[in-house]
Design brief:
Elements (H helix, E strand, L loop, with lengths): L10 E3 L41 E2 L49 E2 L2 E2 L10 H14 L4 H8 L15 H8 L4 H9 L2 E5 L9 E8 L2 E8 L2 E6 H5 L4 E3 L3 E4 L14 E3 L2 E6 L2 E7 L6 E3 L4 E3 L11 E3 L2 E6 L2 E6 H4 L4 E5 L2 E5 L14 E3 L2 E6 L2 E6 L7 E3 L2 E3 L1
Parallel strand pairs: 2-23
Antiparallel strand pairs: 1-10, 3-4, 5-8, 6-7, 7-8, 9-10, 11-12, 12-13, 14-15, 16-17, 17-18, 19-20, 21-22, 22-23, 24-25
Helix pairs in contact: 1-2, 1-3, 1-4, 3-4
């Protein structure tokens, strides 16, 4: 068993996956079980963008460019605070050599390199969304629409992975086993009877000394190997949450409310601080008092996206926050259709009102991506076809 150490911590808690329905999407039951810690050789993804309705394909005939590891933030660069509500609006470097911004946030007199968006193209985000939705029993249109919102990248099983790993996962055409298990090291199996009795299952130990943080969403039991996720083998849980214990310098004993560390919100789970929300990618500020990632603008009450020039503006933790759409998805700007604002490239369709499961024509899935109609070939992505609710496997 090959183990990866030193990874940035992530928590799998109830509600981070989205799509709470326990109904299993037709054709989406999976028998992927257990965790296999491998480091497969993969190629790159070629996503042609020609014509009005480009066909997203997945090829593996060339080498994946290595953009380097996700920046490591030394613990003493960002001391834990009770309420980290300092100016934290600028963004300096991508999570993995991706999109860049100007300015460097400061906290308690220290500077650090924040994590930011991966700088995916709209076609890459589409491919990532379709694979995520198919393998986790989620509506593909809803997932792709959420991935074009900055707040989506603050939490979740998929977005917590470094950008180089996500790009490599896109090049894997082995269906859900290749995408989730081989590339992202996420084990998935059907819940008994296809129904989740609770979103939190807790800590499991499939092998001596190896624990998994296990949840249940959309009729699937989902497991993360803690040794792979955080570099420690220990899982911690409570009645409402489960997560992998971070490195000793990034955690500590706790019994109360949340705290902020290195631009991320930590919550107390099973007597230990574990990472919950990463505020850096959405250019928000970690605020322990609000228990949220908070915007830097005027106060607000409604989480309704709106355009602020070419940027998209969201209500985050009771304050408005603007993000440059081009940093989220290259080549996009804030657009509006049907009275809804979104990051995109066109206004031919409204992604917020498009059919949640997309539409199928043979093996081709059609979605509204950033205001443009886009076709995805389910077979070339490694799935068995297209059916009710999206690609099938």
């Amino acid at each position: 068993m090959t183990l990866r150490k030193g990874w940035v911590a992530v928590i799998a808690v109830a509600g981070l996956l989205g799509g709470c329905s326990d109904e299993v999407k037709p054709g989406a039951a999976t028998g992927d079980g257990g965790i296999i810690l491998t480091n497969p050789d993969v190629g790159t993804i070629v996503l042609p963008d020609t014509g009005v309705r480009p066909d997203v394909t997945f090829l593996t005939d060339v080498q994946v460019p290595d953009n380097g590891p996700r920046p490591d933030v030394a613990p003493d660069d960002r001391p834990a605070t009770g309420n980290d509500a300092s100016a934290d609006g600028g963004r300096d470097a991508g999570r993995d050599g991706g999109a860049t911004d100007t300015g460097a946030p400061t906290d308690t007199g220290m500077t650090r390199t924040p994590r930011a968006f991966c700088g995916f193209t709209p076609a890459e985000i589409t491919a990532l969304a379709v694979r995520t939705a198919t393998c986790l029993n989620m509506p593909p249109q809803e997932v792709v629409t959420q991935m074009f919102r900055p707040s989506y990248w603050e939490s979740g099983l998929i977005t917590s992975r470094p950008c180089s790993i996500l790009r490599a996962a896109l090049a894997n055409t082995g269906g859900c086993t290749g995408f989730l298990l081989d590339s992202l090291k996420i084990g998935v199996e059907p819940a008994p009877g296809g129904v989740c009795a609770s979103p939190v299952i807790g800590c499991r130990e499939p092998a001596p000394g190896f624990q998994t943080a296990t949840t249940c969403r959309n009729g699937l039991v989902i497991s993360e190997e803690c040794q792979y996720v955080t570099g420690t083998a220990e899982c911690v849980s409570s009645a409402t949450a489960v997560g992998c214990r971070p490195q000793p310098t990034q955690t500590g004993s706790c019994s109360g409310g949340p705290r902020c560390l290195e631009g991320r919100l930590q919550r107390c789970v099973g007597g230990a601080y574990v990472f919950s929300l990463d505020c850096d990618p959405s250019a928000t500020t970690c605020d322990a008092t609000a228990d949220a990632c908070v915007g830097t603008g005027a106060t607000c009450t409604t989480d309704t996206d709106r355009c602020d020039g070419t940027s998209i503006q969201q209500c985050r933790g009771g304050r408005l926050n603007s993000n440059n759409c081009g940093f989220l998805a290259t080549g996009t700007s804030c657009r509006s259709a049907g009275g809804h604002a979104f990051c995109g490239t066109a206004t031919d369709c409204d992604p917020t009102t498009a059919p949640p499961g997309g539409t199928c024509s043979g093996n081709v899935l059609t979605l509204c991506v950033g205001g443009a109609t886009r076709d995805v070939n389910c077979l070339s992505a490694g799935f068995t076809g297209c059916g009710v609710g999206g690609c099938t496997h």
